[in-house]
Design brief:
This protein is of the alpha+beta class. It is 15% helix and 27% strand. The chain contains nine helices and 26 strands.
Length: 427
């Protein structure tokens, strides 16, 4: 057998001259193997259909299909494991693509990683603890994803600290505001009232404020002919946000001079979708631009605004929400001092069922089902704020309600998150 030569049968039109040289048709065995390559197959001489299924014969000596492989294994799971490797090789070898201790499982034209509890992603490359959807990425204010990692940002008027997570007010500790407007004269804050959520009692009068060592939020008291009629929140040293219906009444429109506690209003801007005749309370918000800036300090700060997703996903449902104003107490006399009240969010379905009026997607409810605590007449335009890691964010504007603190009824607020882009653009 060692000396047998191979005879090549050449089809018509096919030349082997380049391989064999002129006139040669016989090759030694080792040379013939270089020309013809074929899988060697064990042949018993028995008919194949009479033999038992054999993996080597069916799929290794020659190509097979999945049905033939299934006949060998007689098990779907084992067949799929074999087929995944057989079709395109083992994607998990020689080195597993799964990171951080993930377990690799081969598949057809791909693979799948079973990740450890603290990781996710195709290759288990994402550390869950550092994602925005997990505890806001540990950020004090806003979280954004960049290259599969969370990056923290701060609200306007705040600066990111060296730990890359905390935010600190940029208002100078000498008692002057961070000033962004080209106005030379700064008006001292003498008649603008402020509150702190740590003190649920009155902390100021609409005619003046008591000093306090605590960091406070500034709140505006809207005046017409010396009489207060609504409230507002200071967004920065020049802009105040309030309810649109406060500015739409005939009494207000016909006043000779309009003030926010001795700060003259230079411009009022109602939201473009607000229409008093169609709905008094839908899109119920407005901006007031002051003629001169209010002086801020490290202890007197404006309220913060958060983007829509941040506000609705992180702040909605928080237990640390409050409302404040100079409105009527128990539907009686107007409060002589600025008062604050903790008010929990109300489930939206319950909110809509509680009112005979239409609760739109631009509103939300807050308050108590039976407890006699609620915003009331005179509180309109005031803030509904929510604390997040020591910073107060504006989440709502006092808009309307059916009587004050009536059982089964709640206060209805303008959902500020739906207007973030409009507010940010103008203020």
């Amino acid at each position: 057998l060692q000396h047998i030569s191979c005879v090549l049968m050449v089809s018509p039109g096919v030349s082997l001259g380049g391989l064999l040289g002129p006139g040669r048709v016989l090759l030694p065995r080792h040379s013939a193997n270089g020309v013809l390559r074929r899988q060697r197959r064990y042949n018993t001489g028995r008919l194949e259909e009479l033999q038992r299924d054999n993996l080597e014969r069916e799929c290794l000596e020659e190509r097979c299909n999945m049905e033939e492989a299934r006949e060998v294994f007689e098990n779907n799971e084992k067949t799929m494991e074999f087929w995944a490797r057989y079709v395109d090789g083992d994607q998990c070898k020689p080195e597993s693509p799964c990171q951080n201790g993930g377990l690799c499982k081969d598949g057809v034209n791909g693979y799948f990683c079973f990740c450890q509890a603290d990781f996710s992603g195709k290759n288990c490359e994402i550390e869950i603890a550092k994602q925005c959807y997990n505890n806001n990425g540990g950020c004090a204010h806003f979280c954004a994803m960049q290259q599969e990692r969370s990056v923290c940002h701060c609200a306007r008027g705040y600066k990111l600290q060296p730990d890359r997570k905390s935010c600190e007010s940029t208002v100078c500790h000498l008692g002057h505001a961070a000033h962004n407007h080209d106005v030379q004269k700064r008006v001292p804050i003498v008649h603008c009232c402020s509150f702190t959520a740590s003190d649920p009692t009155a902390v100021g009068k609409c005619n003046g404020c008591r000093p306090t060592p605590l960091r406070l939020l500034l709140q505006a008291c809207l005046m017409s002919r010396g009489v207060s009629f609504c409230a507002g929140s200071l967004l920065n040293e020049i802009w105040v946000i309030t309810a649109a219906h406060c500015l739409s009444s005939a009494e207000y429109k016909h006043t000779a001079a309009d003030y926010i506690r001795d700060h003259t209003v230079a411009e009022q801007i109602l939201h473009p979708s607000y229409d008093w005749h169609t709905s008094r309370h839908n899109h119920d918000l407005a901006l007031l631009r002051l003629a001169a800036p209010v002086e801020l300090s490290a202890r007197r700060l404006p309220v913060c605004l958060g983007p829509k997703d941040f506000t609705e996903k992180l702040l909605t449902g928080a237990e640390s929400s409050r409302v404040s104003g100079w409105g009527k107490v128990n539907a009686g006399q107007t409060a002589p001092r600025l008062k604050t009240l903790g008010v929990p969010y109300v489930d939206r379905t319950l909110c809509k069922r509680s009112s005979s009026d239409h609760i739109t997607r631009f509103m939300f409810c807050a308050g108590y089902d039976a407890a006699p605590m609620d915003a009331c007449q005179g509180d309109s335009g005031g803030p509904h704020v929510t604390d997040h890691q020591g910073t107060w964010f504006l989440t709502g504007i006092v808009s309307w309600g059916e009587e004050c603190a009536k059982a089964g009824k709640y206060g209805v607020y303008t959902r500020v998150s739906r207007y973030y882009s409009w507010i940010k653009k103008l203020s």
